Description:
- Belongs to the NMT1/THI5 family.
- This is Thiamine pyrimidine synthase.
- It comes from Agrococcus carbonis.
- Homodimer.
- The protein has helices at residues 10-23, 63-70, 73-76, 92-97, 108-116, 163-171, 176-179, 190-193, 207-212, 249-252, 257-277, 279-287, 295-309, 321-333, 348-359, and strands at 26-27, 32-34, 48-53, 79-84, 103-106, 121-125, 133-138, 153-156, 181-184, 199-203, 228-232, 244-248, 345-346.
- The chain is of the alpha/beta class.
- It folds into two domains: 7-129 and 240-380, D-Maltodextrin-Binding Protein, domain 2, CATH 3.40.190.10; 133-232, 3-Layer(aba) Sandwich (D-Maltodextrin-Binding Protein, domain 2).
- The longest helix has 21 residues, at 257-277.
- The chain is globular.
Amino acid sequence: MKNQHKRAARSLSLLAAAALALTACSGMGAEAQPAAEPTANGDCASVDSVTVVLQWVAQAQFAGYYAADANGHYADQCLDVTIQEGGTNVVPQQVVASGNAEFAVSHVVKSMLTREQGADIVNIGQVFERGGYLQVAWADSGIESLEDLAGTRMGSWGGGNELVLYGALRDRGIEPTTDIEILQQPFDMSMLLNREVDSVQAKGYNELAQLLETVNPDTGELYQREDFSIIDLQAEGYSVLEDSLYARDSWLAEEGNEDIATRFLAATYMGWADCRDDADACVQTVLQQGSALGTSHQQWMMNEINALIWPSTNGIGRLDEASWQQSMQFAIDGEMLEAEPEGGYRTDLTEAALAIVEEAGYDIMGADWQRAEVELVEGGR
């Protein structure tokens, strides 16, 4: 680690360096939106500028990154971080693979598919411990299981977001490309609400809320969960690692970049801890980014995103080997990957980062965190 970056934090940097040395290991569009000006920090002899590309537009799914910026964690780690929104034409892991950003937020399976295709991206931190994929139909549709999807019309996002669903269907003996009529699904619930399809993809932290903040024209009240048949892919045994952080092997190999990555991870994990401990403040931070989603929708999303991270079994960012192997085997069995890409993850950078986080007094486990009750209002306002 470079001890010239922040003189007052020299002991933290040395501690992280020791952790990095002891734990080093590895395993088998939208326009860029500059982060807020870094807090003036006289302890920084120099500031490193990096970009992180999100999977989608500004929303509470990415609150930890915005909080790390707004609360000064990136600045404290002598970083000037540009947070680039994603979108339908932005593939974060490919942006990093092409050298146009240092870090990307992406799901494990589609990122490893990119690595299998020749990119040298590597997982350096596993932010989400749990997954959030759902398949949703009307309660009166007769669809109650994955097997019931055979012979139906189904909305699917594509863009790599269909991989887990397709793998689950194949595991149940259903070939999605021939046994189901697939229609391109927009990133909203209009196709289901208009009954254009029998089921749609959804995330528990986003699209499910879109349904539950919509008025039922027959009752004049908001739709309720019982109005829908909700298939939780995780509960069905198809839990695959989702949001994680990626960088290029070749970039990390350049002098000083492991240090930059470690500081970026440490600040990011602090941001996520802030969102665990003060979710409302993080919602406001996200809303200040100009999100089109309203307050109650973002409150729902923040609550559900926290549930994917906390309580953490091993500490935020630590990749669980068994979960990785399960994700890889599922991807191989589901014909998404030919084999597990060699060297797809490394854990040493997160270990070094967590040494900084804990030394700063942050709880990396969140054992006492509990879901809050969130009341949605019409339109997610």
